[in-house]
Amino acid sequence: MAGAGLTAERLTRAAAELADEIGFEKVTVSALARRFGVREPSLYSHIRNVQDLRTRVATLALTELADGVAAAMLGRAGKDALVAFANAYRDYARAHPGRYSATRTRLDPESEAAAAAASRHPELTRAILRAYDLPESEQTHALRLLHSTIYGFVSLEADGFAHARGLEESWARGLDALDALLRNWPSAG
């Protein structure tokens, strides 16, 4: 299986699948080499090292997540867009736990691909905020609130809430609360 048709893209996709199976933090060059039935040195003509591999997986995951969120939000505004946005994040985290974990990777701002993938998420959040008519000076605060609330819930759910009863109701009520807050955003000061 020498070479096995290896490319950087094929390795990245395989590493993303591996992340979903065993956890992002356990993705290594040697684990990936085993998956392809090749020796580690065979991979180094396509990737530099484990950090490069993980950055590629994070960039892929950020792109996939943004694509899914954008598709879910298409043609929606206000609460409908907020719910679509949040559900797309949650659904991605459930379907791809390793990749979702990879989205939390701090990426090199000098990397064009990584920067482009990461920049789409705040843009999508700002698209939600337009319907709520928040002043420009308040949008960063609202953006942080939305991301921290959604990320927090999804992370707690992935870790296994101690009280899983009523989980769907809590999710829906949390989104209702975010909508109400955004419609009644407190004035500064």
Automatic annotation (TrEMBL):
Q: Which InterPro entries match?
A: Homeodomain-like_sf, HTH-type_TetR-like_transc_reg, HTH_TetR, MT1864/Rv1816-like_C, Tet_transcr_reg_TetR-rel_C_sf
Q: Where's DNA bound on this chain?
A: 28-47
Q: Does the keyword Transcription regulation apply?
A: yes
- What are the UniProt keywords, alphabetically? DNA-binding, Transcription, Transcription regulation
One example of the protein's molecular function in GO is: DNA-binding transcription factor activity
**HTH tetR-type domain ranges (all copies):** 5-65
Asked if Oxidoreductase is a keyword of the record, the answer is no
The identity of this protein, by name, is AcrR family transcriptional regulator
Q: Give the source species.
A: Actinomadura namibiensis
